[in-house]
Amino acid sequence: MRQQPEQQAPPVQRLRIRYAKRGRLRFTSHRDFSRAFERAVARARIPVAYSSGFNPHPRISYAGAAPTGAASEAEYVELGLREVVDPATTKAALDEVMPDGLDLIDVVDTATSPKGALADLLTGSEWIIDLPTTPEDAAAAVEAFVGAEEVIVSRMTKKGLREFDARAAVVRLAATPREGGSRLELLLKHGTPAVRPDDVVTGLERIGGLKVGPEHGGLPLLTRLTQGVFDEETGAIGDPLH
Q1: Is the pTM of this model over 0.85?
Q2: What does the domain layout of the chain look like in residue ranges?
Q3: Class of domain 13-120 as given by CATH
Q4: What is the pLDDT of residues 31-58, one digit of tens each?
Q5: Fewer Cβ atoms within 10 A, N terminus or C terminus of the chain?
Q6: Residues 6+ apart with CB under 8 A from 101
Q7: Which CATH class is domain 122-238?
Q8: What is the Cα–Cα distance from 90 to 27, expressed in whole angstroms?
């Protein structure tokens, strides 16, 4: 009979980490980041816990990752440890070995964080979308989008091409001028299926006639500013770490 694998002890501490994707690292895929983060954990000698079974893997959980190509100031990961450590010391050790552009912002013990699974605390996010479009054209597209009852868009997923309503997830959308074009300020409520900011841009193209792309001056630049608990009453995004 095949020998049973050694059973690993459960984590004695869990840390939640907020990190940013900046500069050229906005083009880092989720898979690329997970590899870089796991290498950083090993190089920093963080006592990460491992799962049981024939193929043990580090107890690292990712939640709410931004799409490839989007910069972000609010990405989150949870780390299970086999020893109790000081969060500030762990942050400093990881900072030294993380690639430039993948920057740690905050590290906290889950004992001092809001209760619940990390993914369940990420129910809304705020974004800015920089466009080469004139402020007048951007404002007209936003007005058409916001005034619509629904805006059906499609996106290729792991289960094939899927259609969904991008309008239902948009709590707030406004266009403002910026040098060289316009900026969209977007507040999204997370749901199923998840609506991404690029889906909103697709909807603006479809219903509002927004023109984006290399042939129209450039691609949209997406940046996530915050991500956390969405308050239905106030429309605010709460901090999932504090």
Answers
A1: yes
A2: 13-120, 122-238
A3: alpha beta
A4: 999 999 999 999 999 999 998 877 888 9
A5: N
A6: 21, 22, 23, 24, 25, 26, 28
A7: alpha beta
A8: 26
CA–CA dist 136, 12 (Å, integer): 56
For residue 61 the two structure tokens come to: 């959980």
Using one digit for the tens of pLDDT, what is the confidence trace for 146-173?
999 999 999 988 788 889 999 999 999 9
Full DSSP string of the chain? -PPPPPPPPPPSEEEEEEEEE-GGGGG--HHHHHHHHHHHHHHTT--B-B--SSS--B-EEEESPPPTT-EEEEEEEEEEESS---HHHHHHHHHHHSPTTEEEEEEEEGGGSPSS-GGGG--EEEEEEEESS-HHHHHHHHHHHHH-S--EEEEEETTEEEEEESGGGEEEEEEEEETTEEEEEEEEE--SSPPPHHHHHHHHHHHH----BGGGTB--EEEEEEEEEE-TTT--EE-S--
Q: Would 13-120 and 122-238 be classified into the same CATH topology?
A: yes
